[in-house]
Amino acid sequence: MWVTSSFATVLTPTAVALGNFDGVHRGHRQVIQPILQKAGASQSIGVTPPMGEGQGRIEGLRSPNLKDNFERQVRLGANPVYGTVATFHPHPREFFSGKSWNLLTTRSEKVQQLSLLGVEQLVLLPFDHELASLSPQEFVEKIVIQRLQATHVSVGEDFHFGHRRAGTAAELRAIASSYGVEVSIVSLQMCQGERISSSSIRQSLQEGNISKANLLLGRPYTFTGVVMRGQQLGRKLGFPTANLQLPPEKFLPRHGVYCVRVHHPTLPSLASSPCAVMNIGHRPTVNGIGVTVEVHLLDWSGDLYGQTLTVSLEQFLRPEQKFASLEDLKRQIQADCEAARAVLGCLD
User: Rounded to an integer, what is the distance from CA 127 to the centroid of its chain?
Assistant: First the structure.
């Protein structure tokens, strides 16, 4: 997938879905679906879909070259349109508050999820004072029409844009129609009588309600991080852990112990997604400093230092607590492992 934060390197024309898309949850996927259908014709002549991740330089395009594909389709008389998601960077809440905003999906995670859906291009619109001050009319003219050269736009019915979020989805449709651009307005998606939203997913994660969060996402909530050397306290207790260093912007759920599965793209011994127990917190029993994310893999041993692991959250087991002794902690960890085996179906 081609990724750019520069208008100079946007691949056009586009069928574009607009929004923040933090989480790329079930509701977001419904908003993205119309642009995939509109862009589908550009792949019907056998053009290889885009690959790789760009950094805003045309020369950074990986084979097959999207620009060459575009020109080839023109020669063949096709009407190429790039299935595009345009989102905002930084997140508008971060821009207006001046404070960091933790994300359900980091940039790399968002790229991965969008790629799986078949999105060809991700445009990170630079959310700055200039963009924030555009009126709804100016946003459509300068961004949607001139920069993105959109032939079709898809948004959720609660989409707002322009200065002070004055523009609505209906207004976007009205303005875009004057340029001959069709706008799909996707209704809010519901699950068990509740609206599917990033806010609901965040709340569920904060409460430790992983089953609900995963239901709204349409997949397990995941962490991806590099295994770093820690204090090796788990090894001394007989439960060695992989200490994950996560991107600082990654949203963390409630502190406590979780049943998880671990994935690694190339290690054969981890291909079957082994069961594991994960702890998120300050480790109060051992006077830990700062928040750590530690994973103990069940029935697995090996050196993982420097490896990148992806952990899928399956169920919350218990909140973080301080034990009277290391022996009490050890007994509880053993009980956590047994509970994880039962939940994940990996009983030995």
Answer: 19
